Amino acid sequence: MSSQHTPDAAAAAPAVGADSPFRQEHALRDEAPQFVLPLVVRIEKTEPPARTDALETAARAVLVLLTDERAEGEGEWAAAVRDWQDARIRKVVRRARGAEWRKAQSLPGITVHGDASEVRVFPPVPLDGWPKELAKLQVSGTDLDDPAPPSPAGPGLPVLWFNPGLEMSAGKAMAQAGHAAQLAWWELTGAERARWQDSGFRLAVRTATPEGWAELNRSGLPVVRDAGFTEIAPGSATVIADHPALRARL
C-alpha cells in the first residue's frame, strides 16, 4: 500500500492519467460502502485537555482499536473494520462532556487515556448510520490549546509531524494524527507492530519547522493528504509519520 493517503480517501499522488492504477484504486474505494471511525474527546468546560495531549491520545486510540481482539479475525467488530479500511479511512472527532460523555461511555468502544485527556474510539459505522447518542454530539468547539510549547520528543519515539503551514481545529488535527498513526501501522512488520503495541503505542505529536517539513517530504515516510472536505484544501499534506522502524529502511 502506498505511503501517501488522504484521510477521507485512497492514496494521494501527483496528477496522473484517468486510466492509471492510482485513479482506478481511488474509484474502487469511492464505490465501496463508506464507513467512518467515530472518536469522542472529553472536553469539560472547567478542565479541557491540552491540545497535544488530545492529539497523541487520539492517535493511540486508533491503534488500540485496530489491535483489539474484537477488531481482528472473527471478532464482533472485524467486519466493520475491514469494510472501513477497504474504503476511505474516514475519521470524525466529536466532543462531549458531563451527561453526554457518560452516554458515550455506555456504547461499545474503548476509552484511551492520555496525561489528562480522554478519547473514546468506537467501531466503524456507516457514514449515515451514527448511533443517536453520538450523532447529536458537536463536531465544532474542539479548539484546544497547549499551556506551554511541548518539549522535544524523546529519542527513538515515533513522531507524527504536522505541517507548519496549515491551521486546523483540534478535532480536525486529532483525526489527522489518527490517520498518520494508521499509515505507519500498515507499513510495519509483525515484529515491529508487536514492539510498538508492547510499549503502549508510545508516540509524540509535534509541529515540524519549515526546514524540517521540507526534509520530511523528501524522506519517503508515510504522508497523510487530506481529501479537503473540511477546513483545508484538497490534497494538502497534513502529517508525516516518522516511525524509527520506517526511517531505518530509508
From TrEMBL:
> What keyword terms does UniProt attach to this protein?
Hydrolase
Species source reads Streptomyces xanthophaeus
Which Pfam families does this chain map to?
PTH2
Q: Which residues form a coiled coil?
A: none
Q: What is its EC number?
A: 3.1.1.29
**Would the keyword Ligase turn up in this protein's UniProt record?**
no
Q: GO molecular function of the protein, one example?
A: peptidyl-tRNA hydrolase activity
**Any idea what this protein is called?**
peptidyl-tRNA hydrolase
- Is-annotated flag, keyword Protein transport? no
- Where does the source fall among the domains of life? Bacteria
Catalytic reaction(s) noted: an N-acyl-L-alpha-aminoacyl-tRNA + H2O = an N-acyl-L-amino acid + a tRNA + H(+)
Broad EC category: hydrolase
